[in-house]
Amino acid sequence: MFHGTITEELTSHEEWSHYNENIIEDQKDFVYVKFNGLHLKSMENLQSCISLRVCILSNNFITDIHPLQSCIKLVKLDLHGNQIKSLPDTKFWSGLKKLKLLYLHDNGFVKLKNICMLSACPSLIALTMFDCPVSLKKGYRHVLVNSIWPLKALDYHVISDEEIIQNWHLPERFKS
Predict the structure, then answer these.
(1) Phi-psi region at 91: left, alpha or beta (left = phi > 0; alpha = psi -120 to 50)
(2) More confident position, 142 or 21
(3) Contact 117, 90 (CB under 8 A)
């Protein structure tokens, strides 16, 4: 069991000892990172991973995702099962122009207004937020699908046209 930072985790493994002296410098070339279930509390060292495309940090103790701001090439970000209670502002999300998949379920999000910050993420097509307190709020799904325009799936369910347009129902001949 590990309770530290990503750099400590990377440099603590004996089989990687020959990489230890250059690990910080080499982080800029990382494309894929998977540190799930390691009880990480911080990811401040990921800010140097400017080439990162896939980041899986699920089931840890992470509370702050601001260090990912410099990871502008991210396509998939999995942060489910952490202790995140709020999301960064729209400036953070607008910088992640290539982010398509975002897994945030099983976190501590409470405010729907804070989740709507994701509307600034221009390419986000799939989002998970189930098992968060905010997902129990009335109108949760409707607000999110009408705030995040590129979104095609929420909580592993495809978004229908009827969900996007308020109080509109497809004529019977167009229904599936």
Answers:
(1) alpha
(2) 142
(3) yes
